[in-house]
Amino acid sequence: xxxxxxxxxxxxxxxxYYTTKRYSIPxxxxxxYHKKSLTPQELGAFVRKSxxxxxxxxxxxxxxxxxxxxNNAFKASQNLILSLDKYFNDxxxxxxxxxxxxxxxxxxxxxxxxxxxxxxKADSYSRIEDESILxxxx
Length: 138
Fold this sequence. Notes:
Blueprint: H1 3-23, E1 27-33, H2 40-44, E2 52-55, E3 60-66, H3 70-88, E4 94-98, H4 106-122, E5 128-129
Parallel strand pairs: 4-5
Antiparallel strand pairs: 1-3, 1-4, 2-3
């Protein structure tokens, strides 16, 4: 990953940790993959206004589901997948969701999300997963 992108990711995660600690506002981090190239404008049309995202590469975006507990982030992810399926007329979107833990460094957050996403892409049954999929991997 480009250093500039990682710096933006690190700032976003640390800012979210601060906001959560200071104002008790929930957030959930996610990583989205789409087989086809996905522009920020395309993704922006389908995420909620309160959600923030950072482009990692042509096929991956980091998403911060602001003001959202993990179970509601799962529902938002379902809605996002449904919208992208219709828009692209395919089913190649996959989303990894990680439990919010302020003790995790930004690098650990991103690495866990990548690991979860790799497991999601390897399992054709589910297209959204959280860290529980790693229980058999770790």
